[in-house]
Amino acid sequence: MRKLVCLTSLLFLFAVGTYAQMAQTAQTAKKSLYERLGGEAAISAVVDDFAQRVLADPRINQKFAKSNAPRLLYFLKQQICAATGGPCKYQGRDMKTAHKNMGITNGEFNALVEDLVATLNKFNVPKPEQDELLAILAPMRSQMVEVQSDATGTPLPANFKPAPPLPEKKIKEGPFPKKKGSMKSAKRR
Fold first, then answer.
1. How much is the pTM?
2. What pLDDT sits at residue 16?
3. From CA 51, how far away is CA 39, in angstroms rounded?
4. 23 located within any domain
């Protein structure tokens, strides 16, 4: 009888443990990629590092010679936030329009992806989240690449017209929606 009670107790503990593990797995699966990446602060830090890496990379930095850096950061953060299930609504140009006449090559796009992966690794983003983010961004390749070549470091064509800078007020407000009751939203009233 005592063995039966012990066995029943062990089975019960195993069942409770298994249920708890399944519940935690289900909870993780319900979280958006935005949440799993760490939300606003983490996305902002990753985009800032990524942009610095890209602007220092001679394989692709010429393509950003005429770009307005604050505008680029603003819309890149907003786009990543929206694409990963965050509270943002991307309000920038579509990728085809934004990259028109930049003459981006396959090689330069690949270099951009390598820089993104290096940044994600620097921030210890787990492989499943990296893969999910890259899968979300992959369709942009066909909208950005204009030159079928493995070349990198090609000059920005003279006919490229960059988007105008954003108003200073918009940059200060930031790309992320303000939370109700936050200090930032209270200051604007």
1. 0.79
2. 46
3. 18
4. no
CATH number at residue 77: 1.10.490.10
Q: How many domains does the chain have?
A: 1
- Alpha-carbon dihedral 78, 80, 84, 88, rounded to 10 degrees: 0
Residue 146, both tokens: 């204009």
Q: Confirm whether 179 is domain-assigned.
A: no
183 within domain boundaries:
no
In tens, the pLDDT along 1-15 reads 555 444 444 444 444
How far apart, in whole angstroms, are the C-alpha atoms of residue 175 and residue 179? 12
Q: What's the pLDDT at 179?
A: 78
* Residue in 64, 165, 169 with CA at minimum distance from that of residue 112: 64
Domain that holds residue 63: 34-160
Here the tokens at position 138 are: 């992959």
Over the stretch 111-152, which tens digit does the pLDDT of each residue have? Answer: 999 999 999 999 999 999 999 999 999 999 999 999 999 999
Query: Does residue 133 contact residue 56 with C-beta atoms inside 8 Å?
Result: no
87 in a structural domain? yes
Q: What percent of the chain clears pLDDT 90, i.e. is strictly above it?
A: 78
